[in-house]
Design a protein that fits this description.
7-stranded antiparallel β-sheet, 13 strands, globular, mainly beta
């Protein structure tokens, strides 16, 4: 996952032992975050490194080292160490692209889901979230999760609507075969 321009992950708060900084592969800059262990190694922040809210388009890039990779973006993070967030993720073992709303006191809610998804390995992909508040061409609460190549070619896209969270921190959800 990219970019950690200062070479440190100290600003993140959860499960940082599951991650390290690498300088071997980076989309931009000199450093990237890489997962070093844990099946669901979350690295989340509840606002210390920035927040996102409805009305925002944001993205990250990930280099999938194998076609068995799992990677996702956490957003709307409400509190560290708890499942209070949206999670837009790609899970290769299930060939699934999904957006979930997690809340520790309620069952996980599927906002959008697409099966039969496969992504190429050994290339940088952009994982983009469009979180609409009604000013980006959709309705308040619309969430679109797009995965595209560097060329801009859209590989997969799903969309749904959920207004449970309207802002919060950001984070990553990935396994060790994503650099």
């Amino acid at each position: 996952l990219d970019d950690v321009s200062d070479g440190s992950i100290a600003e993140y708060t959860d499960y940082i032992d599951n991650y390290s900084i690498t300088s071997g592969r980076s989309y931009t800059g000199d450093y990237a975050i890489t997962a070093v262990g844990g099946d669901n190694a979350f690295l989340a922040d509840d606002g210390g490194i920035g927040t996102v809210s409805q009305g925002t388009i944001f993205s990250m890039r990930a280099y999938l080292e194998s076609s068995a990779a799992e990677v996702g973006i956490l957003f709307g993070v409400q509190s560290e160490g708890r499942k209070n967030w949206y999670n837009a993720e790609y899970k290769a073992p299930q060939n699934r692209l999904a957006i979930f709303r997690d809340n520790e006191t309620r069952p996980t809610e599927t906002v959008a889901n697409k099966n039969g998804v496969e992504l190429p390995a050994e290339e940088w992909l952009q994982f983009k979230i469009t979180w609409d508040d009604g000013t980006l061409g959709g309705n308040s609460g619309d969430i679109t999760f797009t995965i595209q190549r560097e060329s801009g070619e859209v590989l997969h896209e799903i969309a749904g609507n959920n207004t449970f969270y309207t802002s919060g921190g950001i984070g990553y959800n990935n396994q060790a075969d994503v650099a």
